[in-house]
Amino acid sequence: MAQETIQQSSEYGHLLQLAKERSSESRNELGTIIQDLLEDQSSSVSDREKNLMFKILESLVKELEASVRSDVAKLLAHRGDVPQSIITHLANDEFSVASPILTHSELLREVDLIQIIKDRTVEYQLAITLRREISEGVSEALVATGHEDVIVSLLENRDAQLSESTMEYLVEESKRVDTFQEPLVRRHDLPNNLAGKLYGWVSAALREEIVSKYDLPQEIIDDLRTKLTAANSRDVKEESETLPQATLDLVEQLKAKDMVNVDVLLAALEQGEVSLVLGVFVEMTGLKVRFAKDIIFDGNGEEIAVACRAINLTELQFLTLFKKTRKRIASNRTDMTSDHINKILAFFRTMTPEAAQNAMKNWRTL
User: Fold this and answer.
1) Which of 71, 114, 130, 309 would bridge with 141, disulfide CB 3.0–4.6 Å?
2) Which residues 6+ apart lie within 8 Å of 110 measured at CB?
């Protein structure tokens, strides 16, 4: 064992001799011995031995092979007795070495982390967002990078501390960067006043989550809904509030024959009959024309998932409707990636019919 190697060497001569040698073989042998010492939790290492081990490691860490440095970094990342210089050096090493230090080491100071965020690539920044504790200063530096993936990962870290000004900035940014919206709504430290701001531009599903999660007075909720409805009304042309009389007549005929169903809706989609699609969708859901049109044209998929769950469509029917709607009606959209489809499908699966129906009750008032 590594401990026995030290004990068998007079005054740690073997370690010191290896440290003096310049060959890569001796350096890597020394690194392996130190690695064994760090891994051997069963043996007691004296302070003298530990100090010697770290002193030698500090002097040769730059010369070890990357694989050895990576293994050493994984072991040091969870220790609290490592010299600052070693930790800082490893945190600035190539990413495979730095990653465990950036993510786990509590010895990295705020100033070290902020400097790494400024100097290093997005990989390093993402690793830092996974830390168990992140100070307001580090969060501010991560947000300042402007990298969307980094900011989303930071927001998803419940233990990351965000100052009020940083949170307010991200809420405002979420108007144009919709990937910020969901993690913001689901943070435990989002102030009520900022939750109220988010309500004005997030999806209908997230608005319902805000109402259920945050202690917003009913009069505030009513006021927000009124303002949202008024804003939508200003942006939508008058003719979008109603359907052509011919469409209304056709829907009535279909209704009389008990043919207002998903099969007719899908057939209308295949034929590109936008007006009939809206008419059937409105009849099936009870939504107003404008709101139904918003869901089909501008929704990110969650709204359709809620509506389909509320009217008891199957998973296959929902997925078919979602894909055909985006393909036929909103062909200019760019969110039809497999990841997005899987995310929307997972959302559909987890939502209960009761929750969907409750959301629909509120939507029918908008």
Assistant:
1) 114
2) 135, 137, 138
